[in-house]
Amino acid sequence: MRQGSRAAASVLPALLCAGCAGAQSAFDTGGAQALGLARLMIFIMAVCAAVWLAVMAALAFALWRRRQEATEPLAIDARRQRRMSLVVGGSVAATVVIIGLFTVTSFWVTRSLWAGDRDAVKIDMRGYQWWWQVTYRDGNQAFTTANEIHVPVGRLVRIRLTADDVIHSFWVPSLTGKQDLIPGRTNEVSFVAERPGVYRGQCAEFCGLQHARMAMQVIAQSPQDYDAWRQSQLAPAAKPSDPEQVFGEQVFLSKPCAACHTVRGTSATAQLGPDLTHVASRSTIAAGVLETTRGSLAAWIADPQTIKPGNNMPMVALSPDELNAISAYMASLK
To answer: What distance in Å separates the CA atoms of residue 313 and residue 255, rounded to the nearest whole number?
Structure first.
């Protein structure tokens, strides 16, 4: 019995610590904004824990202390009344001070989430059921991608948030706090990634059937790698390099695919679905549901409703040869 208790006592701290790390942890911070929020949470939890311990200690003392039976139950003990008044008054004053302290510290920490935009990477993010449209704004060199955000390490990133259909919520806990995307309204959030890495984000506002499968990734890169990625994204789609890919492009442009998607450098310029110009360069498809491989692309094209029920992509009638060709073409778009 003792050995089991000791084993449980040794495993519990490890499990608690494991919850404070990972690609989507508010305590595994990758920037100043997230660090400020993590410290705020720790401070609030520590104060609340201290208050709870004080209340429990007062309760234990009251239960343990024995009082003498009063000879006159209705008599008023002036000294006791003064002590009780001091305790109640002190508790009220402490409550006011603590709430005021929480308010002030929360205000100063959340101010950092809306830092200035000098030399900022400016991004528009629009939420759909159930994917993210990401547009990089830089004068005449704007371009659009989906479900992934690439940012340079050490540089401010300012994201303008809107929604197409219902309320969504942008949340990358290792980098910044939550901010809603509301139809008809524009919100903003900013952050600085201070170390390279892949940070997972999630929609934090229930937005429909596939809410739990509406993820994103923020990929923080060195400035040189970010610039190289950006230049590659500005380029039009790669031209097919073999007969199967050529056939796949022809199928894509002749089927309803071209009525919903854009592939820059071709006649496909629709904007109902994600921009597919460099779809194979993304690590996942369907907002984090599948890793980007030729097989997963083929599975998604063949039956998107089975993989992510309720999404707006219809099933397109394709023969096996057409499906193989179009998946080959999609896999070449890097």
So the answer is: 13
Options 3.40.1170.60, 3.40.1060.10, 2.60.40.420, 3.40.50.720; CATH for 121-234 is 2.60.40.420
The domains of the chain are located at: 28-114, 121-234, 243-331
Question: CA-to-CA distance for 276 and 172, rounded, in angstroms?
Answer: 24
Cis (ω within 30 of 0) for the bond into 114? no
197: left (phi > 0), else alpha (psi -120 to 50), else beta?
A: left
Do the domains 121-234 and 243-331 sit in the same CATH topology, yes or no?
yes
Please tell me whether residue 21 adopts helix, strand or coil conformation. coil
* Amino acid at site 292: T
Helix, strand, coil shares of the chain, percent, nearest 5, are: 45, 20, 35
**CB neighbours of 63 closer than 8 A, spacing ≥ 6?**
none
Quickly list DSSP for 147-178.
Answer: SEEEEETTSEEEEEEEESSS-EEE--TTT---
Residues 193-232 have pLDDT tens digits of 999 999 999 999 999 999 999 999 999 999 999 999 999 9
pLDDT one-digit tens code per residue, 244-267: 999 999 999 999 999 999 999 999
